[in-house]
Design a protein that fits this description.
single chain; alpha+beta; five-stranded antiparallel sheet; elongated
Length: 149
């Protein structure tokens, strides 16, 4: 196989991988936007008592990257124990804090501050998509150059 064709093939495979990643990121961001929209429009403030937190790190031997905390709350006469999203700091067990829950979906439990965050996935998806287009054009050009030599 000619070197130009190898470059073209590798470039097109990389472009396909970037394109697939961009699509997956855009779909994920759309889901996050839908969740935040539901919380903003249907959410009800509840009082959550933290029942415990678990540390998450970025790898073996690394320090704590963030904390995931669970909290219990009562809504509609029922008691729930769910992950409190939007708080990444260590929260003392037993501490009461405000949160927003959606009726009928107890696992949608977020801090009020998290509702004001804007998912950044679209910008990254657009950048990856643009990179995929550039790589595709480069791969096609390399393939044509490989045929001429």
């Amino acid at each position: 196989m000619r070197p130009g064709r190898v470059v073209a093939l590798v470039t097109l495979v990389a472009a396909a991988a970037l394109g697939a990643t961009a699509v997956a990121l855009a779909v994920s961001t759309t889901g996050n936007n839908a969740t935040l929209s539901e919380l903003r429009h249907r959410g009800v403030e509840v009082r959550v008592v933290i029942t415990g937190c678990v540390a998450s790190s970025s790898g073996i031997g690394m320090s704590v990257e963030y904390w995931t905390c669970r909290g219990s709350y009562t809504f509609g006469g029922r008691r729930f124990d769910e992950v409190v999203r939007g708080e990444r700091a260590l929260v003392e067990r037993g501490r009461a804090m405000a949160a927003v829950a959606v009726p009928g979906r107890p696992s949608l439990l977020y801090t009020p501050a998290a509702l004001h965050q804007v998912p950044q996935g679209y910008a990254l998806a657009e950048g990856l998509g643009a990179a995929a287009v550039v790589l595709t054009v480069g791969g096609i050009a390399a393939g044509r150059a490989g045929r001429r030599s």
